[in-house]
Design a protein that fits this description.
The protein is of the alpha/beta class. It is built from eight helices and five strands, in the order E-H-E-H-E-H-H-H-E-H-E-H-H. It has a single domain, classed as Rossmann fold. It is elongated. It binds iron/sulfur cluster (SF4). Belongs to the QueH family.
Length: about 260
């Protein structure tokens, strides 16, 4: 099958392309990601993907980077959710209901573009590498891919690549690929930073609690040692008194 594979970056493309090629598909990658911000990040991911794809002889089509279009489609959804969370970025990161509508709008924008392109350029189907990430909404990806494909009149080739995420991570590390630490949009960058800060805070609190527990343990041990020492001293004093009394008795008997 002649397949247009939407890809978000190089590391996420490794395993899906291996699997799809093994199944005999003729692949072209579509880098259509107006979600990625800032521009330098967009370029860095694109260049990493293109350098790897050139080595694999997989053609890459790049779309137009239109952050304004992404803001109009998904950014405004993200702003509404953030306002509903009272500006709490960490809450947005943790609560699916706050994040999912934004990601759905983001998938929709990118898949509609990919499906349109697939139809225009005579591809049989459109697919995506997004479903390799366990941090994405897999079911929503499927729904939106199928929806966009039906709308454009091409087939959707959805696969859940999550079981291959660890292997993709290993291979991309081994290949020295640039590996980003946030999904792509400005919200995800702030959320990833908030999650890292929260993890750091929790680790520090756990260390503090452990140190306090150890200090308590040490204080209890010290108190036990002091009590034992006092007990030994009292016993020694009692014995000394006994010895002195016996000595005095012996001296009295001798003097008689
Ligand atoms: S977190 Fe990722 S999928 Fe969700 S809106 Fe941001 S870039 Fe899109």
């Amino acid at each position: 099958m002649k397949l247009l594979l939407h890809a978000c970056c190089g590391p996420c493309s490794l395993e899906p392309t291996r699997i799809l090629r093994a199944a005999g598909h003729d692949l072209t990658i579509a880098y259509l990601n107006s979600n990625i911000a800032p521009a330098a990040e967009y370029v860095r991911r694109r260049d990493t993907l293109c350098a790897w794809a050139a080595g694999e002889r997989i053609p890459v089509i790049e779309g137009t980077w239109e952050p304004e279009a992404w803001e109009a489609a998904a950014g405004r959804v993200g702003e509404t959710a953030l306002a509903a969370a009272g500006g709490d970025v960490l809450r947005c990161a943790m609560e699916t209901s706050l994040r999912e509508p934004r990601c759905r709008a983001c998938y929709r924008l990118r898949f509609e573009e990919a499906a349109r392109l697939a139809a225009e350029q005579g591809f049989d189907a459109v697919g995506t590498t997004l479903s390799v990430s366990p941090y994405q909404f897999t079911d929503v990806i499927r729904e939106e891919l199928e929806r966009a494909a039906a709308q454009a009149g091409v087939n959707a080739l959805f696969e859940d690549y999550r079981p291959f995420y660890d292997e993709a991570t290993r291979r991309s590390r081994e290949a020295g690929m640039y590996r980003q630490n946030f999904c792509g949009c400005r919200f995800s960058e702030a959320e990833a930073a908030a999650e890292r800060a929260e993890r750091k805070r929790l680790r520090a609190a756990a260390r503090e609690a452990e140190a306090a527990a150890h200090a308590e343990e040490r204080a209890a041990e010290e108190a036990a040692r002091t009590a034992k020492k006092a007990e030994r001293a009292a016993y020694a004093e009692k014995q000394a008194r006994k010895r002195a009394a016996l000595k005095a008795l012996r001296e009295q008997q001798r003097d008689r």
